């Protein structure tokens, strides 16, 4: 159960990804907005999280009370495995390695959600300011490489974050183009989840769909060479938002992506009754603010039949804070009492 931050507590927090691992120390006396110290490590250069933490702590002689790590993957019974890394992480093993009693592993989007109550005005870009209900649930929809989702509920004293694997629920088209896209994807995948369309993976899938349908962008667009691109997302976004020579194929791709994101964010809002707001996180939304404000997102978000008037009142923000997952992991560690 969440509690108020205790006095004189120092926590170790981490944001663990397949490419980069970020580790930081936070003190309750200094507050969660400013870490005591912070370092980045190339994940693949280390045998596991324990090796990174040991190296980090060897440079900082300070007593640690608790630790919490956001992990890019599901956490089950205190264990987690990161996609694209051979690491297996275990809370008990980490606690023993660090030499403390309390270590927590959180799904990275749950860690991200934990940061929402700490975010300030300049950490957020409003899509719809709406009318936030005090104590209302809040939803997080975070398209990055994949599609992460989480939600927060008010327990009478604080907001508590909970995980969701809603990004792997079925993709539901909302117009004929999306229906045809779904049919196309059925020929490639046994199951077409929302993540197949609403993520970095999804952008590449939508782009390939339009190419196969005979749509072409301008010859100079780097997105035309996606088959050799390690990460197609920046090429598609750049081609779609290029003010001097936009690529029509990339624009079509991004428009469908934004429409699907709007619909899925609206679905999450309905399922969690997120009258406290919907927060768009992950790596993609901050890079496509112009597209999110075009009206395509909002029209898809509110188009919920008899619930449309309710949807118009829900605040929607894009999270701009670049270290929200790290901040959320620190908040979770700081506000969760030891159980031993």
Explain this structure.
By secondary structure, the protein is of the alpha/beta class. It is 33% helix and 22% strand. The strands form three sheets. Strands 9-14-13-10-11-12 form a six-stranded mixed sheet, with helices on both faces. The radius of gyration is 21 Å and the shape is globular.
CATH A-level architecture of the largest domain = 3-Layer(aba) Sandwich
Give the C-alpha Rg.
21 Å
Cα separation of the termini: 14 Å
Fraction in helix: 25-40%
- Write down how many β-strands occur, each being a DSSP E stretch of 2 or more residues: 14
Structure summarized in a few sentences:
This protein has helices spanning 49-58, 91-98, 108-115, 176-186, 200-212, 233-241, 248-272, 289-292, 296-302, 308-312, 324-335; strands spanning 10-16, 20-27, 37-42, 66-71, 75-76, 79-81, 88-90, 102-107, 124-128, 138-143, 147-154, 159-164, 277-280, 316-319. By secondary structure, it is an alpha/beta fold.
Explain the layout of strands and helices.
Elements (H helix, E strand, L loop, with lengths): L9 E7 L3 E8 L9 E6 L6 H10 L7 E6 L3 E2 L2 E3 L6 E3 H8 L3 E6 H8 L8 E5 L9 E6 L3 E8 L4 E6 L11 H11 L13 H13 L20 H9 L6 H25 L4 E4 L8 H4 L3 H7 L5 H5 L3 E4 L4 H12 L5
Parallel strand pairs: 1-4, 4-8, 10-13, 13-14
Antiparallel strand pairs: 1-2, 2-3, 5-6, 6-7, 9-14, 10-11, 11-12
Helix pairs in contact: 3-11, 5-7, 6-7, 7-9
For this entry, give a set of tags.
33% helix, five-stranded mixed sheet, Nucleotidyltransferase, domain 5, six-stranded mixed sheet, 14 strands, 340 residues
